[in-house]
Amino acid sequence: MNKWHGVTYTWVVKPNGKRKKIAIIYKTPVYRQFMRSLAVMFKKQLEPVKGKVHIDIVMLVAKAMDTDGPFKPIFDALQEAGIIENDNLNHSGTYSRYDKDGDEDMIVVTVRSLSDVRENKALDPAD
What we know:
By secondary structure, the protein is an alpha+beta fold. The protein has one domain (29-118): CATH 3.30.1330.70. It has three helices and five strands. The strands form two sheets. It has a three-stranded mixed β-sheet. A two-stranded antiparallel sheet has the order 1-2. α1 packs across α2 (71-80). The N and C termini lie far apart (40 Å).
């Protein structure tokens, strides 16, 4: 399918005895490696947040880069690193992508408790 996901097929037998071909989507080695490298960085740079979270992601990437593909491995990496308990606890956030010329790609991730966001607590620049 793409560098993030592959697809394979299998057959299942329905209750009426008929066979049905179904697709199974799996994570590729490239996806797993990207997610693990992010998890290592997140463990070093972010503090764990319990419960429901608000996640902001800003990506500064080359114009040709796929923009929606990197979001899922970022959420998976936050979970793998123990920053969030489960990626289904991401209840709000902003996800932005900007084209850039030169330099390296950059992804900025901020994770806050959803209750802090709802109480309108500002981020401390020292954090």
